[in-house]
Fold this protein.
Amino acid sequence: MVLGVLLVLLGLSAVQADEKPLRIGVTAGPVAQAVQFAAGLAKERGQRVEVVEFTDWVTPNEAVNTGDLDANLFQHAAFLALQNAKRGTKLVQADPVGLIAPIGLFSKKIRSLEAVPAGGTVAIPNEPLNGARALRLLEKAGLLTLAPGKGLAVTPLDVTANPKALRIIELDAAQLYRSLDDVTLAMVNLTYLIPAGGDPNTALLLDRSADDQFVLRFTAREDRKDDPRLRRFIETFKAPAVKTFIERNLPAFVPAWPGA
């Protein structure tokens, strides 16, 4: 009986040793750290996972679409839908497991929202979705009023009240943290803030919204979302050790999956 069990286990190990490594694309920084940690845990469980880091939000989807990557983890459903429509891809979220990556208003010139001066400059992302999130956060901060009913389709043209005559400038998301040397405040995504050395605790306002459409999740091609290698790694990612790593090492990030 014992010999039979050993043979089965050895057979499973041989299969896993022969299978191709799972290739996961991530954005550099906190998300990469979480996936790298999970990859280490997967290795202990007999699975090989290669983590490929990117510094932009376009290439990871292109690599998944062409098959160079098996999946990626960096985007939420709202961004994915926008990219699918824009680029003609049909990528899907592979599983509810994911991360909540907050956005926030940051400044190197003022210490509170009340101190925002008249005529100040505000930097927001230059792409529609996160630009809309920035505008909504500015409205939540009481700095702007937006036309109602626009949701995530809101743009700077939808600002109906700007009592401090703030000047809104649109920049690439990766440049927003650096822009803090020149602007009054900026909306910065923590996936860029933390790698650049920023401290989430200095946010003038932090949005930890648990809105389902803003949870970062594993994304794959429709024909690969049920790949047994990906399913196995997602189960590893949901391990208590990964949850603990995120909570201890990734300030403000929130594990987001059933039971987390």
User: Anything to note?
Assistant: The radius of gyration is 21 Å. The longest strand covers residues 91-100.
